[in-house]
Design a protein that fits this description.
single chain; alpha/beta; Rossmann fold; 5-stranded parallel sheet; two-stranded antiparallel sheet; 5 helices; AMP-dep_synth/lig_dom; EC 6.2.1.2; ATP-binding; fatty acid metabolism; fatty-acyl-CoA synthase activity
Amino acid sequence: DGRKPANPAFWWVNDEGEEVKWSFEELGSLSRKAANVLSEACGLQRGDRVVAVLPRVPEWWLLNVACMRAGIVLIPGTSQLTAKDILYRLQASKAKCFVTDDERAPAVESVLPGSQFLKSKLIVGKGSRDGWLNLKELL
């Protein structure tokens, strides 16, 4: 019909060639769903803080947009943080939610006794973990 296809709002490709493309409409819809997960399933409110320690996966950018939508403060952390670093960030920020992947979840679990403000934990991945909410399932 001669129309030019829409440019993607988000286009991610990993080292194995797997790619994720979201249109502006899809990114809007997914970010609204993710904001609802943070507000409802995690019980967060405007001004609450979330620490996210993730590699650069699509969910990292999705959480950024979702936090902006919900008025939640996102505190990004590098994947190289140790358990001691994670505990410090949790205590200093008084974060109520932590988001990470399967690989980094044990470091978070090791410091849970020292993180009195943490109310919910979100895992980004295909598997499940005791005491963690799965972001993909909730979306």
